[in-house]
Amino acid sequence: MSNTLLATILLVLILAWYLSFSATRLDRCHHRVETSWEHLDALLQRRASLALEIARHSDIDAATEIILTSSAYQSREANIGDREDAETSLSESLKFLHESAKKGELTIAVKLIDELATLTDKIRTAIAIHLEAINSVKNLRQKLVFRFFHLAGRAKWPEKYHFEDDEL
Asked: Could you report the per-residue pLDDT of 100-109, keeping only the tens digit for each?
């Protein structure tokens, strides 16, 4: 009788440890999504600031300057729901500007173009890290143990924004 009781207590302790370990793992993954988003958000804010700087310090025509300035301000000021469209618009504006600069149609400070290229590479990397973190949370939360024991609690499912699919 005592062996059965001891085995049952041991099994309950192992199950409790496993559930605690799994919940902690999921929490760390959710935290990783949040921190990767914060890093990506900071880079996107820096890109919007750089777009404003390029608009001020280049010889682009007034219409292009207005479009670039407008999309940069929208991406800086918009809430996350509206920001998706603003980030896509800014990406398109910067892509057009970069192609025009390559063709020699615009005179933009080389320093600003180099900084934009470096920042774009960092954003691509940050998007990849963010998407990988989202996928890892989704994969964990779809497992039977996480669903059955409701280990995610009330945590929201991580969101993937459509501007993350944009080609930068």
From this structure: 777 776 767 7
